[in-house]
Hints:
This protein is of the alpha/beta class. Helices cover 27% and strands 22% of the residues. Strands 1, 4, 5, 6, 7, 8, 9, 10 and 11 form a 9-stranded mixed beta sheet that branches. Strands 15-13-14-24-28-25 form a 6-stranded mixed beta sheet, sandwiched between helices. The longest helix has 18 residues, at 595-612. The protein starts with a helix and ends with a helix. 2-phosphoglycolic acid binds next to helix 9. Residues 262, 264-270, 291, 315-316, 318-319, 324, 456, 504, 514, 518-519, 522 line the site of guanosine-5'-diphosphate. It is an enzyme of class 4 (lyase). InterPro entries: PEP_carboxykinase_C, PEP_carboxykinase_GTP, PEP_carboxykinase_GTP_C, PEP_carboxykinase_GTP_N, PEP_carboxykinase_N. The active site is at residue 266. Its EC number is 4.1.1.32. It catalyses: oxaloacetate + GTP = phosphoenolpyruvate + GDP + CO2.
Amino acid sequence: MVDVDQVLDEAGLKNPHVREFVAYWAQVTGADAIEVVSAEDDERLLQESLEAGELLPVSGGRYYSRSYFKDTARSEERTVVATSKESDKGVYNNWKPAEETVATLTERMRGASKGKTMYVIPYLMAPQGSPLEAYAAGVELTDSRPVVQQMIRMARVGVDYINELKDQSSFVRAVHVTGDLPNLGQGTPDDQRLFATVADQRTILHFGSSYGGNALLGKIAHGLRQACYDGKDSEVFLAEQFLLLGITDKQTGKKFHVVGGFPSASGKTNLSMTLAPDALGDRYYVEFYGDDIAWLWVGDDGRIWAFNPENGVFGVAKDTNEASNPGAVEAIKPGSGAIFTNVAYNPETQDVWWEGKTKNPPEDVTGWLDWKGNPIADRTPEQADEPWAHPNSRFTAPISMVPNAAEDYNNPAGVPVDAIIFGGRTRDREPLIRAITDIAEGVYDGLTLGAEATFAAEGVDGQLRYDPMSMRPFMAYSEGEYAAHWLHIIGRASQPPIFAHVNWFQRDPEDGHFLWPGYRENVRALLWLLQFKAGEVKGQETAVGVIPTQDELNLDGLDLPQEDLDRILSIDVERWRQEIEFREEHLKQFDGLPEEIWAAHRRVAEALERAAQ
Length: 613
Ligand code: GDP
Ligand code: PGA
Ligand code: MN
Ligand code: MN
């Protein structure tokens, strides 16, 4: 038996509530040893992982990790929100009663960390000193060392965060136990994995995975699911799957901040790390604040304020290259300490590769292993087309490595939000951008965000589905109350942000090519939105919002076929009338949806009927 008190004393972990929590779960999981970690331990832990073979070296002091082949994405089906209040049950949150969920997980975790070390990770999901700090502290217990290294990159990690808490009992209790991965029946009716946020106990219990999205509990379970619940419970804030960026117009000296909700693997990281297109000269400067989560509240000045609770980037590797995302390439360069997960790896050259890193895979396949660890050279002709890297392979890097990180990304005051945009992978119907000035219609637009699901979640790739505000996998309580909470928070702002819907993914109906070049060029759509908000351009009114005219959108240096441009800057009224019927069915599922949302729906539907005449 480990002497818990002695370990915690030596680590200087004084918070009595944390000590009690650690002692309890050490006893349940049966871990052989306990270790309290801080960010300063990173180097030593990396060395230990290299020696243990959990991490493999990538040239330039970077690292490679491979997760179990059935454990490569978030499992939405196995993820639940548990509370003691059945009224928290929603359409998407897989609600379960708290008591039985805690009991089930305690049994699964019992003795499951035998022979392993349990790492204690005290963390803060906020810049220190933030007005929302009371909701940001947590302690993750994990039996996986690579999870510690990822957490050190993704969150602010250190004992002081937890010792210095004003209310010593106010922290999220997060427990991660990996389990015996080859014997968990992943994807079968007897699937043993269970990922629970016990929201009204501020407790997170995840069993059966070591993949980032399931195992980095500060990030998704706390930063999104738990915070979603806390935001509503306190009536103080919103926690959303949002990117957060700043755009400075050097000519006018004005700076704007934009948050954007796009479903996983739909372009948040790329947009937030992007740089303005070269063709626009150096007039605009885009700054990175966050790529996956933002917490938003109403400031004393009547504006909506936001910060990114994370400290790092967990980005999709696929198609990351010098042209698509030079910022990301810089953030993961030699010397960055980046960790790559489930990409292809060459142990001889200590190199990594993923689809889209270069146009073609390395010509000389000597030494190259695919993401499962199988030699490329041994592939049969039938296997030749299989990707080398997993489509959801990722890189992890701290924000300090991001070249366009805003100077004030650590500022606890946050930044004022000028625009809230929603978007996703939509192959038809959605134009490049449509601006929405009415708050209820903006919230309605978020609630009816419909897009193709991606490989970031197991088993849903390509499926068209609604994903309210891109929060479908992280929704913590009922959608009706969620909509009301949104109206309540944004409605309190005397200077509310403008809303917009964007789509970088419209395709040609015949040959399927993307109609818009995307990536860095996306900034052009945002610049139009900010001009529209400032009253500098008028756009064209449509039934579903205001879209840019071709003259207003800055297309300098782009050579788009007129036909493609016409399509992304117009509204297909018939297709939209059909969409309205789908939306009606979608919204009807939600109990207690505020009347303002139904009224917004009717206004849009009526406008479309008028447009059809
Ligand atoms: P996130 O998961 O929402 O942060 O999305 P990422 O920014 O990581 O992008 C996910 C995938 O979409 C990557 O493979 C990107 O290369 C791709 N992607 C991102 N932005 C664009 C875009 O504007 N156009 C196209 N065609 N693909 C994009
Ligand atoms: P993503 O982040 O949104 O960048 O994919 C991880 C996730 O949501 O699983
Ligand atoms: Mn995400
Ligand atoms: Mn991302």
